[in-house]
Design a protein that fits this description.
The complex is a heterodimer of chains A (257) and B (262). With 257 residues, chain A is α/β, with parallel strands linked by helices. Helix content of chain A is 37%, strand content 22%. In chain A, a hairpin with a 3-residue loop joins strand 8 and strand 9. Chain A is globular, with a radius of gyration of 19 Å. Chain B is an all-alpha fold. In chain B, helix 2 crosses helix 3, helix 3 runs antiparallel to helix 8 and helix 6 runs antiparallel to helix 8. The N and C termini of chain B lie far apart (45 Å). The chains are: A alpha/beta (257), B mainly alpha (262). Chains A and B meet through strand 5 of A and helix 6, helix 7 and helix 10 of B. Bound molecules: adenosine-5'-triphosphate and magnesium ion.
């Protein structure tokens, strides 16, 4: 069965609907990326998957014994809480010293084992968060803008690491990213979200969908054109679509309310 | 040995310090400082009710403290600001408690004893209650430690690991109610919050891990009890406040230590 099965999900904060009727299914080993403008409900989507927000309608089903590794979009560590990186990596269920050393080395920050969490730089902290998400050997990695604050090399090696982890452990990845050119080359599937699913499918399909263009304009066309050139372009436009185009283009450009 | 009132006082204080240490750390980390205050204030209403219905003061204050804590937990999810909520509940509970006490005729109670506690009057029975309460609190927090810590760091990280932060919050709330109920006779309502927060805050600069901070808080708490009692004996000062004074001085000292080290 699927790792996660989201059916007809709607999410509300108070009286405000931020996600409506979203369906999504993640299978073992695939890399799926969610793109969408600020405030389009991407983070809310991941939070619904982990159970931090209750669906207003629809449901979220996790496969049996699915371990989730989660990198949140923001995480504030209170100064009053003393905690070293290695203690953090052991939360909540423990990890061996060897695992920790390995995970930090993989994340490119081998020297931080005994550093205080609240004293890390933004990029270092992001790498530690990733190390923690990976240390449990998750079946599904949920990454909410996980490369924010990483330098160029860090970001590149981050995506390499994701790829190699996937090949090693077969884990699936559901990530949110604004780095469209990377998204387009690193994902199996792209979901374009704006309060609902605007369009989804392989990167090539999404990149050429009018709904996507309506949201991101043609400014990103360069990277996409390049991508389409390098990859096959024989895709059917309507692949992965469940609704008709005209409606969606309209909805998408309207914003998330 | 337990015949000596000083020994009983020290043991009672140490029991409270041990329960308050890990709990106080969470209160500090979660910025719930006034939660302890509010729960403690509400306990006065519990004392009044216990006297009115002649049941044990422990049960009465425990019940009210628990109800208060649950009310806060529930309401805080409904869009009220936490400090406003705590202010309203704490002061109204205290006021209702004081009014309720005035209705009780025939029983003369020394309210001061519950506001400030009377550690030198602790009986062997009280000791048993305090240590049983402390054991329950430490066991409860020890059992939930990792989950509580994860939920304190970040609720979403907790959810992702299959931990329900709301349930962990309830565990904390429950432990807080027990601590208030057992400590009310010893240090009194006004000083419970001090025993929760000051040793934990004093332990912060000395620690690198959460566990380290809990141990430091416990050590500082026990030291404050012993040194405070000693000072009270020497200088003939009130015992409860003397204990808190020692804790406060320790806080000052460790804060300086942090600045020197940094
Ligand atoms: N806890 C909350 N309470 C109320 N409204 C919220 C809450 N979290 C998010 N929202 C609202 O829900 C909408 C979607 O937010 P969400 O964080 O899911 O967007 P996002 O797609 O992740 O945006 P970004 O790209 O900026 O991270 C926003 O309009 C936001 O204001
Ligand atoms: Mg977001």
């Amino acid at each position: 069965m699927s790792l996660v099965d989201v059916e007809g999900l709607s999410v509300r904060y108070g009286a405000r609907t931020v996600l409506s009727n979203v369906s999504l299914r993640i299978e073992r080993g695939e890399i799926v990326t969610i793109v969408g403008p600020n405030g389009s409900g991407k983070t809310s989507m991941l939070r619904a998957i982990i159970g931090a927000v209750k669906p207003y309608r629809g449901r979220v089903t996790q496969g049996r014994d699915v371990t989730i590794g989660y990198v949140p979009q923001k995480l504030h560590i209170d100064e009053t809480l003393p905690i070293t990186v290695s203690r953090f990596l052991k939360l909540p269920s423990g990890a061996t010293a060897l695992d920790i050393e390995h995970a930090l080395a993989q994340a490119g920050v081998p020297d931080l084992v005994n550093a205080q969490l609240s004293q890390l730089s933004g990029g270092q902290f992001q790498r530690v968060l990733l190390a923690r998400a990976l240390i449990k050997k998750p079946d599904l990695l949920l990454l909410d803008e996980a490369t924010q604050g990483l330098d160029q090399r860090g970001s590149a090696s981050f995506y390499q690491q994701i790829e190699s982890v996937r090949q090693e452990t077969g884990c699936a990845v559901l990530m949110i990213s604004h780095e469209l050119h990377v998204v387009m080359s690193a994902s199996d599937r792209v979901i374009c979200l704006n309060g609902h699913v605007c369009c989804e499918g392989t990167p090539a399909v999404v990149a050429s969908a009018p709904e996507y263009r309506a949201l991101f304009g043609t400014g990103t066309g360069g990277a996409l054109a390049l991508y389409r050139h390098e990859h096959d372009h024989g895709h059917d436009h309507t692949h992965g679509h469940t609704h008709d185009h005209g409606d969606h283009t309209h909805d998408c450009s309207e914003g998330s309310d | 040995m337990l015949d000596d009132f000083m020994v009983r006082a020290a043991l009672a204080g140490a029991g409270v310090a041990i329960a308050a240490a890990p709990l106080g750390c969470f209160v500090v980390w979660r910025r719930m400082a006034y939660f302890g205050d509010a729960t403690a204030h509400a306990a006065i209403l519990g004392v009044a009710m216990s006297l009115a219905f002649s049941m044990s003061i422990f049960i009465g204050s425990m019940t009210v403290a628990l109800m208060m804590a649950l009310t806060v937990s529930v309401l805080s999810g409904r869009g009220y600001a936490m400090d406003t909520l705590l202010g309203v509940l704490a002061h109204s509970a205290l006021a209702f408690g004081l009014v309720a006490v005035s209705f009780i005729t025939g029983v003369r109670i020394d309210l001061m004893a519950y506001l400030f506690g009377d550690i030198l009057a602790v009986t062997q029975g009280d000791l048993a209650v305090i240590w049983a309460g402390a054991a329950i609190v430490v066991a409860l927090i020890g059992w939930r430690w990792s989950a509580l810590l994860t939920a304190t760091l970040n609720e979403d990280l907790a959810y992702a690991s299959g931990i329900d932060p709301k349930r962990e919050q309830l565990v904390l709330t429950f432990a807080l109610a027990i601590t208030v109920a057992v400590a009310i006779k010893v240090v009194g309502v006004l000083l419970i919050a001090a025993m929760l927060i000051i040793p934990a805050a004093a332990g912060r600069p000395l620690s690198r891990t959460p566990e380290g901070m809990a141990v430091a808080a416990g050590t500082i708490g026990i030291f404050s009890v012993i040194a405070g009692l000693r000072a009270a004996y020497e200088f003939d000062t009130p015992a409860g406040p003397s204990i808190v004074c020692v804790a406060a001085l320790t806080f000052l000292l460790t804060s300086v230590f942090r600045n020197v080290r940094a």
